[in-house]
Amino acid sequence: MARGKFITLEGGEGAGKSTHLAALAPRLRAAGLEVVVTREPGGTPGAEEIRRLLVEGPVARWEPETEALLHYAARMEHVAKVIRPALAAGRWVISDRFADSTLAYQGYGHGLDRAWIARLDALMLGGFRPDLTVILDLPVKTGLARAAARRKGGNRYEQMARVFHARVRKGFRAIARREPKRCVLIDASRDLDAVRRAIFNAVAHRLRIDLE
Ligand SMILES: Nc1ncnc2c1ncn2[C@@H]1O[C@H](COP(=O)(O)OP(=O)(O)O)[C@@H](O)[C@H]1O
Ligand SMILES: [Mg+2]
């Protein structure tokens, strides 16, 4: 059986990751694919417990290194127990965030050494990468306003400073530039329809499937 494809959606707060994931999954299913929808941090019961440590509580509760390690602990569970088995069984997996978020948030956002994160990634994932990463890009102000309208208060990351989120955006854009074969950068400041069409086009072309 052919291995399934692994697609990740990345981008800052309020970029539209969850919205577009919910639209992409049924479209792939309509094309005859078996699709697993998942998210990070989380995706397994244990990783969802770790998620609570990361998204709840005071903004300054963790050292950046601790935060990165918690994300990778959750990711290890997610990859080993959900993502790899699904791909091996021929299913397609779409994840709301994955490893690029750790590089963008803990690396670019918190200023952790990027080589250290790369070593951690190699240690935990051994070169495992998505087949396609869709990076939704939009001004920080727009994204945070969308996120705030969606839910009052906002989680621990949403409460971090505007300059932090500006560095995260810069990080995602740098990742897209550095890995153009794996990543596609999409202007998410446009209306929902335009963004959705851009995502479907990217998936269809990059992964050579018919999504009509
Ligand atoms: N292109 C868009 N134009 C207008 N509103 C949008 C757009 N994309 C997302 N939204 C809205 O913004 C909010 C945040 O979107 P969401 O998908 O939850 O973002 P994320 O998961 O990336 O944080 C939601 O209320 C969503 O309906
Ligand atoms: Mg979301």
Our estimate of the beta-strand percent is 5-15%
CATH level-four homologous superfamily name: P-loop containing nucleotide triphosphate hydrolases
Instruction: Give, in spatial order, the strands making up the sheet with the most strands.
Output: 2-3-1-4-5
- Tell me which CATH architecture applies here: 3-Layer(aba) Sandwich
Low-confidence stretches: none
What does this structure look like?
The chain is α/β, with parallel strands linked by helices. It has a single domain (6-206), classed as Rossmann fold (3-Layer(aba) Sandwich). The protein is built from 8 helices and 5 strands, in the order E-H-E-H-H-E-H-H-E-H-H-E-H. It has helices at residues 17-30, 45-55, 64-88, 99-109, 114-125, 140-150, 162-178, 192-206; strands at 6-11, 35-39, 92-96, 132-137, 183-187. Residues 11, 13-19, 146-147, 150, 188, 191-192, 195 line the site of adenosine-5'-diphosphate.
Keywords for this entry:
212 residues, alpha/beta, Rossmann fold, 5-stranded parallel β-sheet, 8 helices, 5 strands, binds adenosine-5'-diphosphate, binds magnesium ion
Summarize the structure.
The protein is an alpha/beta fold.
What's the layout of helices and strands?
Layout: E1 6-11, H1 17-30, E2 35-39, H2 45-55, H3 64-88, E3 92-96, H4 99-109, H5 114-125, E4 132-137, H6 140-150, H7 162-178, E5 183-187, H8 192-206
Parallel strand pairs: 1-3, 1-4, 2-3, 4-5
Helix pairs in contact: 1-8, 2-3, 3-5, 4-5, 4-7
Bound molecules: adenosine-5'-diphosphate and magnesium ion.
Adenosine-5'-diphosphate binds near residues 14, 16, 17 and 150.
